[in-house]
Design goal:
The chain is α/β, with parallel strands linked by helices. It starts with a helix and ends with a helix. It has six helices and six strands, in the order H-E-H-E-H-E-H-E-H-E-E-H. The protein has a six-stranded parallel beta sheet, sandwiched between helices. Helix content is 29%, strand content 11%.
């Protein structure tokens, strides 16, 4: 019996059923919010922008992010791992004086989840944090390039609060985003106005 059939059999034996309510993510109730390394107070409305991704083909560029952030007034907090520190620093340096905060490489999973939960909007590549945002029923703008929602990687329970950006009609290059069939990386072609229009739509 192959692994997939074994998994299906185990789930059947456990009598597990989809409750139709989507995902759950439980933040440690003992999380000390005071240990989150930022001067931001979380008492006002703000956006979270998750700039990471397992492959470059799955990440929107720093220049795209800079262009969008320069045209919005809402505070933006950048989340990501150690690999995103350099990119986030470039964005914040370019947008010096703007309402942007770099938290890449500074947080654990629960701290990141807490910030996502407190946000009013999440902009994200195809990442695990996208699914955590979905579990909190957040408004999400999700960016896609060589991977496509049709392969089943999209946020669970898509509704009007989730905007998918990227040419979903194109044939995906790969399921995980580790290769691209063309030299032009699709996600880098997403237009600034398309993102701004999606933000306006979700702000209503």
């Amino acid at each position: 019996m192959n692994t997939l059939l074994q998994d299906i059999f185990v789930l059947y034996e456990l009598n597990l059923k989809n409750d139709g309510k989507g995902l759950d993510y439980f933040i440690n109730p003992n999380l000390d919010k005071k240990n989150i390394p930022t001067s931001f107070t979380f008492k006002q409305s703000f956006y979270v922008w998750i700039i990471g991704g397992s492959y470059e083909n799955k990440k929107i560029s720093a220049d795209q992010i800079i262009s969008v952030c320069s045209k919005i007034s809402e505070p933006v907090l950048f989340l990501g791992g150690y690999d995103e520190i350099k990119t986030a620093k470039k964005i914040c340096k370019t947008l010096k004086g703007s309402n942007v905060y770099n938290l890449c490489g500074l947080l654990n999973y629960d701290q990141s989840a807490y910030i996502i939960k407190k946000s009013s909007l999440v902009l994200t590549n195809d990442t695990g944090f996208m699914h955590i945002a979905s579990s909190f029923k957040k408004k999400i703008i999700s960016f896609w390039g060589c991977t496509k929602p049709s392969l089943g990687m999209y946020p669970y329970k898509i509704d009007s609060n989730i905007q998918i950006i990227g040419n979903a009609k194109k044939i995906p290059c790969s399921k995980l985003g580790n290769k691209c069939r063309k030299k032009r990386i699709c996600i880098k072609q997403i237009g600034v106005n398309e993102i701004l229009n999606a933000i306006k739509k979700l702000e209503v």
